[in-house]
Design a protein that fits this description.
With 352 residues, the protein is α+β, with helices and mostly antiparallel strands. Helices cover 28% and strands 19% of the residues. A 7-stranded mixed sheet has the order 1-2-3-4-5-6-7, sandwiched between helices. Strands 9-8-10-12-11 form a 5-stranded mixed sheet, sandwiched between helices. Strand 4 and strand 5 form a beta hairpin. The longest helix is centred in the first third of the chain and has 21 residues. It is globular, with a radius of gyration of 22 Å. Bound molecules: 1,6-di-O-phosphono-alpha-D-fructofuranose. 1,6-di-O-phosphono-alpha-D-fructofuranose (AFP) binds next to helix 7.
Length: 352
């Protein structure tokens, strides 16, 4: 019998040292401190986005339990009315932002008109536009969805109310933009410009977003295209030729590309940011102006993509230069790796 009584030490759980963890609060504060003179209002808005994202994520997680917890419009076991998730997300944004004193006016993809700041609250100098729950037709299939936000400085000064003038802007005027992705984990990705895009993942055990993807850079060129090809026959000849080009066999240029299309813009653009390639929703004969909303979807995503080193275009002009004329205006779009978008533009404009 062996006299060796030593035992294999039990494996220690992997513990991240507190010094290695950067919470979103700390990150935002450090960013603010690097801009002497900052009022702290933009930081406050970003904290509120993080809170709103956490509140929506909590409800999204329960979406599959409707049969157990109750259907929309019914009263659940706690005696509360069960709200549609996109209504909940919309109300969550409005209620979390209307009283903070940081906003001049808001606009939501879910509301026909601008959302004013109630008289009883203080007014601020920023303007917030948001799509509270993008990709919501995917909810019942347990597919990733997201919230998108876009922040500008106000342009009007007079009176007690922000106006359409504050909201109908060019994307290049945005001071911050981002999204919260409700996927296999919840992530918040945002930029305040300066070529910096950062991603934070929600640690559900402490209820905090932690810096997980610092300084995201999109590859110069990718190998994935993301497009609803079901509408191929409704697209322009240029777009169809571009799709043909992506599908040709040419190992030297990395073709054919792989196709990936979730049908939730946040998920498709998130993958494009990380892996590169192109996300496109071009004009079709049924939707000649494109499908996606300029102010709530296209501009914020275009700012993120461009700040990460990519490119965003309508196919004919830089997306961020498009002057919005209507709150719910749509736009055709191509965004992603610079070389991929440049190539798409060549086909769209007939240069190729
Ligand atoms: P829903 O919010 O109605 O699901 O629309 C999602 C979306 O606005 C965007 O997130 C997708 O990229 C795009 O529409 C999908 O549109 P198609 O179903 O026409 O491909």
């Amino acid at each position: 019998m062996s006299t060796d009584r030593s035992v294999t030490p039990a494996k220690q759980p992997i513990v991240t040292k507190p010094s290695q963890i950067v919470t979103i609060d700390r990150y935002i504060l450090e960013q603010q401190l690097s801009h002497p003179g900052a009022s702290g209002d933009l930081s406050g808005l970003l904290y509120d986005i993080a809170l709103t994202g956490k509140m929506i994520a909590r409800e999204v997680k329960k979406a599959g339990l409707v049969d157990i917890l109750g259907h929309t419009g019914t009263i659940n076991v706690q005696g509360e009315e069960v709200q549609k998730l996109d209504d909940y997300a919309n109300q969550c944004f409005i209620k979390n932002f209307d009283h903070t004193g940081r906003l001049w006016v808001m606009a939501s993809e879910e509301e026909d008109d601008p959302v004013p700041i109630p008289e009883k609250f203080q007014m601020g100098s920023y303007v917030l536009l948001f799509d509270p729950l993008d990709g919501s037709s995917n909810i019942d299939a347990n597919v990733s969805i997201g919230s998108i936000f876009s922040i500008y400085r106000r342009v009007t000064e007079d009176g007690r109310r922000g106006t359409l003038q504050d909201l109908l802007r060019k994307g290049c005027d945005q001071v911050a933009a981002g999204y919260v992705l409700y996927g296999s984990s919840t992530m918040l990705v945002y930029t305040t410009g300066h070529g910096q895009v950062d991603g934070f993942t929600l640690d559900p055990s402490i209820g905090e977003f932690l810096l997980s993807h610092p300084d995201i850079r999109i590859p110069e060129q990718g190998g994935i295209y993301s497009c609803n090809e079901g509408y191929r026959n409704l697209m322009s000849a240029g777009t169809r030729r571009y799709l043909d080009y992506l599908q040709e066999d040419d190992a030297d240029t990395g073709r054919p590309y792989s196709a990936r299309y979730v049908g939730s813009m946040v998920a498709d653009v998130h993958r494009t940011l990380l892996y590169g390639g192109i996300f496109m929703y071009p004009a079709t004969t049924r939707a000649p102006g494109g499908k996606l909303r300029l102010l709530y979807e296209a501009n914020p995503m275009a700012m993120l993509i461009e700040q990460a080193g990519g490119m965003a275009s309508t196919g004919r002009e830089p997306l961020l230069e498009v002057q919005a004329r209507e709150l719910h205006e749509r736009v055709p779009l191509f965004m992603g790796s610079k070389r991929d978008v440049e190539r798409a533009i060549e086909f769209e404009t007939g240069a190729r």
